[in-house]
Amino acid sequence: MDLLQPSKEHPAEQTFALFKSDELEVIRLYLPAGKSFPPHKVAGEITVQCLQGKIEFGQDQKTTVLEAGQLLYLAGGVMHHLVGLEDATVLVTIVLKP
After folding, report:
1. Is-contact 6 20, C-beta < 8 A?
2. Architecture of domain 28-95
3. 76 neighbors 61 (Cβ within 8 angstroms)
4. What pTM did the predictor assign?
5. Among 13, 46, 48, 84, which is disulfide-ready with 31 (CB 3.0 to 4.6 Å)?
6. What is the DSSP string of 23-80?
């Protein structure tokens, strides 16, 4: 599956789970410019990879701008939020069971 190309099942402007098991979930997240994903946390570790566009990733008192091709890691249980600085497609991987 090409994560950047729309399909009948998954338009470019849609967020959806690519894979989910008992231990791992992989999500393609679409975040339009100006839209925010409110502060939240998940129990497991996560990686966030910006595939296209640009996002702001905030955690604690720190923010990081991610552009296409950049990836970050976040420990489980850390409060974080995202903001679309440009229309962005992001790949999120969540460890569900340590």
Report:
1. no
2. Sandwich (2.60)
3. no
4. 0.86
5. 84
6. SEEEEEEEE-TT-EEEEE--SS-EEEEEEESEEEEEETTEEEEEETT-EEEE-TT--E
2 three-class SS: coil
Residues 2-21 have pLDDT tens digits of 656 555 555 566 788 888 99
- β-pairing, 36-40 with 62-67? unpaired
Please report the pLDDT score of residue 12 as a whole number. Answer: 60
**Closest residue by Cα to residue 48 from 39, 38, 58:** 58
Q: pLDDT tens digit string along 65-82?
A: 999 999 999 999 999 999
What is the CA angle 16-93-39, rounded to 5?
Answer: 80
Q: Domain residues of the chain, as ranges?
A: 28-95
Nearest-CA neighbor of 86 among 71, 69, 65, 70? 65
